[in-house]
Design a protein that fits this description.
This protein is mostly helical. The two termini are 19 Å apart. 66% of the residues lie in helices and 7% in strands. The longest helix is centred in the last third of the chain and has 25 residues, at 93-117. It contains six helices and three strands; from the N terminus they run ααβααββαα.
Length: 146
């Protein structure tokens, strides 16, 4: 199996584990892309525009994620009713708990993988993947990023 395919498969397996555990704990429907938003909101309440800038995504993307989180009761928007640009997103108790559980699941999954593969293999994998992630990407769509 190619390394790129193995990385995708490993990411999918980790995401499935996370989603299953969150769902079992009573937090269904939280995908990886929205959990990042929960983690940032746990640090401080913020606007859609500010969070979009921080995460390097569009305001529309954050607004859609916020809508999904709000519909599930994980966040609320507070502030002036008329101008949504100035409304602040704030985690609810359920959103804060889901984010905290997700962080614990990261640690739990790390421990499970270390027990299965051992410290040496985990260190080697971390070094390779960290080095690959640190490589500059080719932004013109031509050739290899490596």
């Amino acid at each position: 199996m190619l390394l790129v395919a193995a990385c995708r498969d490993a990411e999918a397996a980790c995401e499935l584990y996370r989603q299953q555990q969150l769902s079992r704990a009573g937090y269904p429907g939280i995908r990886r892309e929205v959990i990042v938003q929960l983690h940032h909101l746990a640090e401080r309440d913020t606007t859609i525009g500010a969070l979009a800038t921080t995460l390097h995504v569009t305001e529309q993307d954050i607004a859609q994620r916020a809508g999904a989180l709000e519909a599930r009761g994980y966040l609320r928007r507070i502030g002036p009713q008329g101008d949504i640009r100035h409304r602040v997103m704030q985690l609810t108790a359920a959103g804060r708990a889901a984010g905290q559980l997700d962080r614990r699941l990261d640690a739990e999954l790390q421990q499970l993988l270390t027990e299965r593969f051992g410290d040496a293999q985990m260190t080697a994998a971390r070094l390779v993947l960290t080095a690959l992630a640190a490589e500059p990407t080719n932004t013109d769509g031509q050739g290899s990023p490596y």
